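Dear colleagues,

As part of the handover before I leave the project, I'm documenting each prediction I ran so the next person doesn't have to rerun anything. This entry is a single chain, and its sequence is reproduced below.
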Amino acid sequence: MLNLNENEGSSTSISNFITTTYDMVDDLSSDSIISWSQSGKSFIIWNPEEFYNNFLQRFCFQGDNINSFFSYLNSHGFRKIDSGNWEFANDNFVRGQPHLINNTISCVIEGRVLYDQSMDMFKVRKLFERQVKEVEDQLPPHNSYPTSKRPFPTKLYEMVDDPSSDAIISWSQSGRSFIIWNPKEFCKDLLRRFSNTLHIPLFFHKLQRFSFKKIDPKKWEFANDNFVRGQCHLVEIIISNEKEKIDQLLKRYDRQKKLGEARELFKLQIEEMKKTKEVKEQEVRLQHHIGLCKL
């Protein structure tokens, strides 16, 4: 029996869930409860009650087993198929091709890394805000410069590439990252040139949104593989990647919504089955009691 709650989110628990689910679906002896669909590109839970009573225990979930199971389905990229069955699919979960689940494991680990990076950027932002707080509190309203509708990476590239502000912000020696040398002056003047409404939290949010990473713990140094001195055309790749990321997030949101709805319906069906079972057991006990009375 697997304990997926121990070191939850680790590569071991990720691998355990997907491999255990694959083995469970692939087991011919349990086809009346859970099996591959006819296409072999999805699996179907045929008997929710038996699945709930016996199969969920294999994962050793703590607390609410149903919520945990659906949470893992979601984090591993499964989606609810719009059919009359409890049918779920993942492009890398295919009958006869168990090697494909390594792709799912890689995607989940990549998602964990991106989450860790976002948390790191949040901590960096807090440190930056503390360093410039005195200056920020003294700033007048954001009305010094006209608003520009150009994309954030384009404006950032132009700012970093401007030699007149090298004492405040500039390319690193390698030209593959940029450094904010003077955070207070950056906050006082340059930051406000992006937009009348741009402030420190939003600036760091945009760095994260466009996949910039802080790369030196001792400097305010940030990098993106497509943000390179002398190659301003690469900025279009950053912008394009961000649009693709938004599309993926919208698809993920739709998948999560459908899985959430399926989870609630699944729980409701299990509860109804439990009630029906309890009623039948009561009827059996009553009939037995009546039989004893007649004797």
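The domain at 133-230 is CATH 1.10.10.10 (Arc Repressor Mutant, subunit A). DSSP finds eight helices and eight strands in the chain.

All the best with the project,
I.
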